[in-house]
Amino acid sequence: MTTKKSIGVGVISLGWMGRLHARAYRSVGERFPELGIEPRLVAAADPLEEAQRAATEDLGFERAHASYRELLADPSIEVVSICAPNYLHAEIALAAVEAGKPFWIEKPMGVSAEQARSVARAAQAAGLVTAVGFNYRHTPAIEYMRELARTGALGRLTNVRVWLIADYNSSPLSPLTWRASRDRAGAGVVPDLMSHGADLAQYVVGRIASVTAMTDTFITERPVPTTTGVGHSGFEIGEETGPVENEDYVAMLVRFDNGVLGTLESSRVSVGPRAEYVVEVYGTNGSARWNFERLNELEVCTTVDGGPTHGYTRAMANPAWGEWSRYQPAIGTSMGFDDLKSIEAAQFLRSVLTGEQLAPSAADAWCAAEVDEAVVASAADGRWHDVPHIELPTTFNR
Ligand SMILES: NC(=O)c1ccc[n+]([C@@H]2O[C@H](COP(=O)([O-])OP(=O)(O)OC[C@H]3O[C@@H](n4cnc5c(N)ncnc54)[C@H](O)[C@@H]3O)[C@@H](O)[C@H]2O)c1
Asked: Which PANTHER family match (predicted)?
């Protein structure tokens, strides 16, 4: 029997994402056996006592801390996940760089382009590999869509349509969590959902060069929660209300460096769609479209010479698409959201072993933050804004 190399993991913050990162690390030994590693969940850090209890009793961590600084000081922790609310990302990531620990951080990487820039530059200067939670990239159908787009199978690319329309805040009784605070979350749905859409568009098509955008806040007051929850669930509310300080909705037009045009739209307050995250890419010879609510399917049309049944073929995920075959041995059987995080964990740990940046990187997150900032500026003055070039290499044109 071969012994797998143990790799010490620390997870900072145990809300929805922190718990998912922990599950994802645990899956890597089995799903990616060729890496020859077994992640060891050494410690979690979260100020909430309930999260500390869950860390050791439910999730399998050896210990739990209230402060992330204690975790970062532990020499047996070789890699860290940063899953805190957005306003803590830059502070914690810079401390991780200081401690020499490669990190996997949730998006958005801070609450401003300036914060994202400082983190990306610090990681680069320290020679650390990183990973950022742009998990939808790892969807097998998206990987295949990208292949179609980038190999010319769709002809010359003309335009993309991307929308991330969710209902997690559609009820006026949804609580006023950290996500509604400008200081703690940034520009609302722009860095929250839309940053996934911009990343997907860049991953499939190339860098976004310029944007013009409209934004609005449709529900301006919300009840203050009286208990904490995890992600979007589990909060109780009282009579008191407070102001929503950031964007519920964004609509954008974009131009890509390569001349492709795009429309992107995102909402966190739509009534009807639950999590309708759609990417459509069009070329002169065909198109492909994917919807997160049907994660395992891709609709493809690759001919302009239609007969009476001309239109989309609905293909199911299969071994030719991305990492699908690591998760299911039988076509027609579905992968799920958590599996995308498992792939992200494996890419991160493979990068730690090899030094080659594989997952979406801190530079990609900086690039996304520059798109966010251009969107907010355009919504304020009604003009087109160029997205500044960043000097670090990104992974989406690899
Ligand atoms: N990639 C995705 O699809 C995706 C999905 C959801 C959330 N996210 C991102 O993940 C991050 C976390 O979101 P969530 O839904 O898990 O949030 P959450 O509200 O469920 O959890 C946040 C956790 O952070 C902890 N925390 C607060 N202050 C802390 C501190 N000083 N030190 C350590 N921990 C602290 C809280 O106690 C809580 O347990 C956000 O940046 C969010 O944008 C990404």
From this structure: BCDNA.GH03377
Q: Return the residue whose CA atom lies nearest to atom 40 of ligand 1.
A: 85
137-335+360-386, CATH topology level: Dihydrodipicolinate Reductase; domain 2 (3.30.360)
- Note the pLDDT tens digit of each residue in 343-386: 999 999 999 999 999 999 999 999 999 999 999 999 999 999 99
- Ligand 1: which atom is nearest the Cα of residue 136? 3
157 in Cβ contact with 283 (< 8 Å): yes
Distance in Å, CA 17 to ligand 1 centroid: 6
Fold observed for domain 5-135 = Rossmann fold (3.40.50)
Q: Which two tokens stand for residue 45?
A: 């850090």
Contact of 163 with 266, CB cutoff 8 Å: yes
Q: Is 16 in the pocket of ligand 1 (CB under 6 A)?
A: yes
Return the domain boundaries, the chain: 5-135, 137-335+360-386
* Total residues found in the chain within this entry: 398
Pairing of strands 313-316, 297-301: antiparallel
Q: H or E stretch including 338?
A: helix 337-354
114 CB neighbour count, 10 Å cutoff? 12
Is 103 within 8 Å of 96 (Cβ atoms)?
yes
